[in-house]
Fold this sequence. Notes:
4 copies of one chain form a homotetramer. By secondary structure, chain A is mostly helical. Chain A has helices spanning 2-11, 15-32, 49-54, 57-81, 89-104, 106-115, 122-148, 160-186, 188-203. Chain A has one domain.
Amino acid sequence: xxxHREPKAHTEISTQRIEAFSDGIFSIAITLLVLExxxxxxxxxxxxxxxxxxxxxxxxxxxxxxFVMIGIHWANHHYIFKLYERSDHNFLMLNIFYLMCISFLxxxxxxxxxxxxxxxxxxxxxxxxxxxxFLPAFAWLLMWLYAxxxxxxxxxxxxxxxxxxxxxxxxxxxxxxxxxxxxxxxxGLVGLGLCVGLTxxxxxPTRPPVYNKPDE
Amino acid sequence: xxxHREPKAHTEISTQRIEAFSDGIFSIAITLLVLExxxxxxxxxxxxxxxxxxxxxxxxxxxxxxFVMIGIHWANHHYIFKLYERSDHNFLMLNIFYLMCISFLxxxxxxxxxxxxxxxxxxxxxxxxxxxxFLPAFAWLLMWLYAxxxxxxxxxxxxxxxxxxxxxxxxxxxxxxxxxxxxxxxxGLVGLGLCVGLTxxxxxPTRPPVYNKPDE
Amino acid sequence: xxxHREPKAHTEISTQRIEAFSDGIFSIAITLLVLExxxxxxxxxxxxxxxxxxxxxxxxxxxxxxFVMIGIHWANHHYIFKLYERSDHNFLMLNIFYLMCISFLxxxxxxxxxxxxxxxxxxxxxxxxxxxxFLPAFAWLLMWLYAxxxxxxxxxxxxxxxxxxxxxxxxxxxxxxxxxxxxxxxxGLVGLGLCVGLTxxxxxPTRPPVYNKPDE
Amino acid sequence: xxxHREPKAHTEISTQRIEAFSDGIFSIAITLLVLExxxxxxxxxxxxxxxxxxxxxxxxxxxxxxFVMIGIHWANHHYIFKLYERSDHNFLMLNIFYLMCISFLxxxxxxxxxxxxxxxxxxxxxxxxxxxxFLPAFAWLLMWLYAxxxxxxxxxxxxxxxxxxxxxxxxxxxxxxxxxxxxxxxxGLVGLGLCVGLTxxxxxPTRPPVYNKPDE
Lengths: 216, 216, 216, 216
């Protein structure tokens, strides 16, 4: 029995470890967002610091919105990791890909904050930002499909209908973000509006998971 | 009994998880403050590096003061989370809002450090900084009101008088910061002085919580 | 017996502590990579933001590649720490040296992103980047040689053949990176290609460790 | 007995919590050091990137040296926290002051890297850097004096001679850094040399603590 436990303990990185590492990255990516808000500079004699500070609203918007997005991803990550019974090497690599997409978010946020006010650039900016939101949603879907395929890494008694519900949900999210990207090519602010709406939707609580009875 | 525990374990993020995530953000926000102190630049032949380094006192002041502020918020966060028995989705979202306000602090600190010496801008700078301090205090109050309303998330035996004591305390803190903002419109340095005074007050230890006896 | 445990508990930093501290540094170094992608600047009237964003491909490549590298190092760090039974002062210092090499990676990545497109500088850039990848691999080898020498810090029943397998593997990695550095002197892109190939190889799962039976 | 445990659990932040928070700050401060190494810029047509990269040696030196310093502080923090039985409010505040000094280190390091090569500024730079090293050593001494006074927070059976040994050691460290500051006024590089020497000394293992027998 002691022998049986050893190889298991030595080859798998536990889901707790992955969660702890992911939490670190979530909390750093979310905190780095503030570095993208730059102190306004202007001639020493100039007036209107208050106006300058108010005119940074795209930076504030980007900060708040990306913060909420990463916060929701963090909450979701915990929610879903409770459904995972174990991990494997491929899943670990997919999780690193997912974290790469999360950590990237401060960059599209900075681009948004810098150029959203310039009307001629709103479409480009919105497409890029919506794409930045799509990336982690896509990586998330990949992780879920890998983990849930044949109940590979899931709790064995997780209800099949509930599994299908999540699969549908994650596919829909990806479709919505693709829709937001497409819309942004045509009208930047409308595309961004769709992204904001989607996010507000995700602030709502998620459905608690359903398990079969042990004797089934 | 086993069945009963599962849904609970799967829908709630434990207060420990929230604390760990929050700790990560506290420690990153507090450490990022040093990035706002910029190495002074001047012509290679110029003298007076020592004078330049000393003239950075607004940066040092901002660093020390915001560090202490975030440190106090961290200590407070731990203090209060010991009173919380459980968490729910809304509370989680309020905590993310609170962390967003904490993570924002390096920006008003940078604005303060950059412009406090320019007399014509002291009022704007002080209003902005006091507002930056007010935001997490306000989010804190919201969290407390939500958690303590009808003892929603609190330990069931936490004394009602002690609860009222904390509610009063957090309302007062908010009033004081609003006062500091108002004062800053009229005289920047006086407003900042009030902020510093308030903070020194918070360095004092907080009252230990009071519990009713189990048989009550 | 109580007396016997005390000095042990007080002089050694447990491998768990070292892992937790290392995890923090891995997750920060990996997240800081995004700060090296700079928002493109150009005259307000200018067009072509989309083209500018696409032309940042060296930054994206550097981000993705260094992210994967640090991610693999993290996974490896966990894999190997499960083989370590205990720690000592020298090992702690070697681990700090290793973390210093990991944390340095954002800098060669930034140099790569900034200059790889300038043909005349590709050799310098590739040598520097390959050297940046070599450093943590070298520190890793030192740690392993120290820990595995006479089974100093290893689990006592870890198979000798498996130990030799890892020693060979880490020596080979170092040789390959030295090869990539040499190749880069002659042709930068070929050298980088070798680095990418090596990394893809490391994405493959590692062999599970082999233990002798307890009665041997 | 249940009642007795509650107030204790609710008023004190455990030493483990303080260690975890401190670890976060150590690992972030140590990783931020790399951000102070700036990618060299020069005209696109210019040659000599290799020479430019080598000429960054003051940045590399600052990175390595400050990394080792923070690493040693981290190891020391764990070493000493094993001697502490409990914590109190003042100790918590002293620890925040200590962490403030640790987090500040990237700034003197950046000043050192930027100006150490300019001979006329070496004294200023060395004084400032040595002062940056002195600050956490001083905060450390304060923490120790507070915690060890009348065995306030120490393990009750920690040997009195061992306590005196540590007090002497920490006083000496402070004296040496004050010496390095003084020396730097007269000759910058000699002062820096003393700092490096001191640090090499601290890389040596520390003496294991001595406890009295339980029956004493």
